[in-house]
Design goal:
Blueprint: H1 5-24, E1 29-31, E2 38-40, E3 44-46, H2 52-55, E4 60-62
Antiparallel strand pairs: 1-4, 2-3
Amino acid sequence: GPSSEKALSQLNMLDSYVKELVDRFDGNVIITSDHGMHDDNEEGGLHGSFREEDLFIPIIYEKQV
C-alpha cells in the first residue's frame, strides 16, 4: 500500500532522482501523477474507485532561482 515500507523506500529513491534532475536541468520542473492510491487491508493498495485518495493528484512544481 501507499504507506508500506516498500512504497516509502521507492518514494525516497524517486525523490533523489528528482533532486538530481532539478540540480542538473536549467529550467522549471513540473511533476504530476495520473491517479492516487488508497490503503486496502487485504491487497495493500488500490486505485480506481471514487475515493478522495484515488482522485487526489499531487502536483509538484520546483522553480530554480
